[in-house]
């Protein structure tokens, strides 16, 4: 009886377990083979994920552009920058619309938004261009003094420059005896000059790529002449001084931005200028012996000096130059090269003798100017610039009527100088510019000190 019960129990267990095992195997097989509905769901989720990623990238771009707008408006309100255009905010549809009411709080995205940054090529390019352009007020002021700035519509600049010259020359009039002993007169000539120049400069932006400039200078010059050893006496020293003042040579120039600065290319500006001979020409000025027998100085009247000082060069000149600028945050590097040609001009008198009149023509030698420098921005208001400049001038030539050109000995020059300037923004429209130039060659001024106050509209 017990054996029958045991057999019956085992039979029932097997009959119940086998369908359950078959059902489990069918369920596993169904799970191993995904249905079409599951595949559709996965694709729908992927599309939604990509849409969210694109939307997030768009929001990050908008946040960055809003951040740039807020910074630009805050700087403009504080009077630290010039009126620069506010970047437009990209809408979700891809069009750009100005944002008239930027948010009060500046929001910056987190640095770990890797997925969003992959789709922000346009935003990165805009930020790179913003970093490359000297957008700060201080760098723009420094750049204006060395090349040109095209974001300013009108600038009126008042400048005052003081220059000091000191030239010494030893003159020997005699011969060598036995190749060792000099017999004759030894004279030391010294010329000291003070030059004060007031410049009224106007710059007008015709377009985003071209500006026009007009410079009207007024000069006041005083030159003192010293001569020692006159009359055979080494102890005899004479001094005479003359002065002159008046309008200088007016210059007009046009600056054109040939290439805009990019990540791999510097900004390039072409310059064409014309100098008009509106000042007093140095040719034909009479030299006379001032003083006389009744002068206080016993040695007075021993040498001649010009009766007045010139205020211009007397010739028309044309200048063509090119300058390049590259931004290297937080500084800008600039360099320039220019060529100046002077056109010959005839004068009724080119002689210094008041008793004679000698007509003739004058032609100045061509000049080449080059320089380079760097400007640093300390903050939004202050910048420092360091530069080197050099001007190489060929010899001048004179020609008598129907004669040939003859070069003037010693008329060539090499004037090199080291310049240091500081700019400080006094207000939203006004800047104070100070510059110090130190002469490096005898043909350059010993030093120059310049103060400028440009007013920008």
From TrEMBL:
Species of origin: Rhodanobacter glycinis
Tell me where the signal peptide lies.
1-24
Taking the record's annotation, the residue ranges forming a coiled coil are: 35-83
Comp. bias regions, Polar residues: 104-121
Q: Where is this region: Disordered?
A: 91-137
Q: What is this protein called?
A: Transporter
Q: Which SUPFAM superfamilies match?
A: Autotransporter
Q: Keywords in UniProt for this one?
A: Coiled coil, Signal
